[in-house]
Amino acid sequence: MTTAPALPRTGKLAERAARLLAALGATPAGSGDLPARTPLTGGELLRVPAATAVEVTCAIDQAHSAFRSWRTVPAPQRAAVVRRLGQLLSEHLDELAELVTLEVGKIGAEARGEVQEMIDVCEFAVGLSRQLYGRTMASERPGHRLMETWHPLGVVGVISAFNFPVAVWSWNTAIALVCGDTVVWKPSQTTPLTALACHALLRRAATEVGADPNIHQLVQGDAGVGAQLVDDERVALVSATGSVRMGQAVAPRVAARFGRCLLELGGNNGAVVTPSADLELATRAIVFAAAGTAGQRCTTLRRIIVHVDVVGPLLDRLCAAYRQLPVGNPLDDGALVGPLIDAKAYESMRSAIERAIDDGGELLCGGERVDAGGPDAYYVRPAVVRMPAQSAIVREETFAPILYVLTYHDLDAAIELHNGVPQGLSAAIFTSDQREAERFLAPDGSDCGITNVNIGTSGAEIGGAFGGEKQTGGGRESGSDAWKAYMRRATNTVNYSTELPLAQGIRFG
């Protein structure tokens, strides 16, 4: 085990968290059943109350009641809440980012980037409020107009994961609100403090612009709280981010009551590196995508499929870069890799490396635990493992910084290898050959929802729809026309003639 500089005691971090909550307008948590821990030391920061079943029902009641009037507010007026939220986030960017660091362990640059993403999506949603377009189609009947209109859907239940504790909530909430929906948010029980802060900022934004603050509800607790959102018929859409196993439990239950699901689940993301690739550029992109956020992004790069002619030079560059990565206190500006979220994540990483070696893999660098933050904190050096073939462990997503290296001779074989996993979120190819790039983007190329050329698999912009295929769940959030998931479509026919022709030329009577 290697050693990094000591961190402040958990008590000091708890005081810091309480001050940040107060600055963000959230009542500092006191007693409660839900502990807020920091992966920086593994210790407890504060405790917050968990919602009872009655309180969850009440929150859904209030959101449903607020929806009845919120849906009739013109969309550009609804956007005033989101505009003000974006302004408050800009004013409190540093405080909220630091709270993200304390609760999740992200380095400062990534935490600030996550809050900036919230600000960006608020700007996007404000513009979207004037672009919730329907369409007019040519009617086959004279004197008739055929059109589509879009209407608010209802209560949206947002179930979010720990790794992006605020950004994913904002993707859903900003767009749902301008679409005329109300929101009930069940955050990860690992990140209750950032949830309190965001809820307070949104409630403040609503109050300041004269909107009903009940358009947003926060319910904290374990999986039972999420289950109530999943099963309640008043929750029109459940947007859930998490594991494949969670999605497999959520989707059938929502479908059984004919509700809607928007799922963002597993990502076992791969990149192809061709002989024509700019290896310096590829190295920089791969290191960030694979080691950023300590490998705890859904878009983390977990597999690289490298042409045999360049695998040696690329691995030399990668391992040299990995050995220089500063691992340690994410509050320190020099750190590039913070801690894993908890002991379970560390054990998963260690088990995956052991299984990879048992399958004939070779650990090229990394994988060891770093002594920082005390015995209950789990800092690790990102690992690179060369694999002889795409074994069972390579087909699985381990939520930790492990990069598997496979090789190929033929691009078609590389694409087949890339697509040969159950997940389908994000993909990349590194090449200077336009034909290779276009081949990877073609219908029979990458099967992922996000496919990039000469950039890594992580770091998506908010303007494009985010989501993936296969076990990733098929959902789309944030940009493009993802707003349609939060609304219902109506086809309307208007007869402005004095006749009553029927479609398809049918005559009746």
Automatic annotation (TrEMBL):
Domain of life according to the entry: Bacteria
GO function term, MF aspect, one: aldehyde dehydrogenase (NAD+) activity
Stored InterPro entries: Ald_DH/histidinol_DH (IPR016161), Ald_DH_C (IPR016163), Ald_DH_N (IPR016162), Aldehyde_DH_dom (IPR015590), ALDH7A1-like (IPR044638)
Domain Aldehyde dehydrogenase: 33-489
Matching Pfam families: Aldedh (PF00171)
Keywords recorded for this protein, A-Z: NAD, Oxidoreductase
Family recorded in the similarity comment: Belongs to the aldehyde dehydrogenase family.
UniProt subunit comment: Homotetramer.
Protein name according to UniProt: Aldehyde dehydrogenase family protein
Source organism phylogeny: Bacteria, Bacillati, Actinomycetota, Actinomycetes, Mycobacteriales
